[in-house]
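Technical note accompanying the year-one report. For the benefit of new consortium partners, we illustrate the data format agreed upon in the data management plan: each record pairs a sequence with a structure-token string. No post-processing was applied to the example shown here.
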Amino acid sequence: MSFFSKLRERLTKSSSKIGQGLDDLVGDGSPEPDTNPTPEPPPPAEAKPPEPPASPASVCPAPASPPEPALPVDPAPIPMPMPDARPATPPAPEPAKKPGLMGRIFGGGATAAPAEPKRELDDEMLEDLEDTLVAADMGVDTALRVTANIAEGRMGRRVSATELKTLLANEITRIMTPVAQPLPLYPKKPQVVLVVGVNGSGKTTTIGKLASQFKAAGKNVVIAAGDTFRAAAVEQLQVWGQRAGVPVMTAPEGSDPASLAFDAMARAEAEGADLLMIDTAGRLQNRADLMEELAKIVRVIRKKDPTAPHNTLLVLDATTGQNALSQVETFQKLADVSGLVMTKLDGTARGGVLVALADKFGLPIHAIGVGEQIDDLDAFEPDEFARALVGL
């Protein structure tokens, strides 16, 4: 099963929330009248009784000579039929013509499906659409822009739920396409990738999956377990390292994570590693002390390499909804976030927040995750995501 087939299957809450909302929004309308109804076939012709035979004079004129005396004849003789006359039988019905290729493509000759309910696209409908998008965590500003673009040139037109979903998916794709970018790889060795995020966002799992995928692609990867305050995070990274065959640098519990990051850079440089992925402790964006600690890690890394970190990935939990926007704002100020990874899209009814993030910040979205398995993290594909989100 491909990743986005899995996404469609697992993104059930988001799809049902938006998709069902659009169905309900249009469902109050009435079925569109058929402006070009298929003509009903004429009733079969009833068999007419045979007409009485024509008089002899009308078929075969009699000679002008006077009649000869003869035996009495029937007063109503039946004339002989003309040589090419045939018994009158109703014509056989012509066999139904099969539609041609283009007819099959465009539905010609097929039995028309029941008309889908349609509703006029007016101000009231647009307000209902905005409410549906805001409820899916697309955000007020983004929802207003999306509905305005959908309404442009279509006001007063009747649309079905399927047409509305298609318009919405196209608009989401337009917003998301510029930010759909894989994690860039540079010739610089080691390329330092700093991974940040709040508690429970999925940083450790994301690092393990990325490291495993890069290793499978032939890259030499080193992981630094910078969450020195949580033993479970270190153990989890070690498990992923064993699976992928990637070394994991650790430090005693409670050690300075900035010091570990510095040592990890020295080791990665000495071993000629292509990538150094540094995990960090989860921290809330409203904790100034924890955010200062993250800023210290960045400062120490830059003492070793002024251009590092070359990528700073912010891992976001889709279930946090609109709170993800404030996380991006805070982490971007302190750690110069270069790209996003969105996890847990399979367990949320708020997938629309990814659209809001793309619309507001324009940061690259490198990957999205829908589960715990190694193949449950993949590059972001805007069109597939948009169709899954709206329930198509």
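Partners are asked to follow this layout when depositing records. The CA atoms of residues 238 and 248 lie 6 Å apart.
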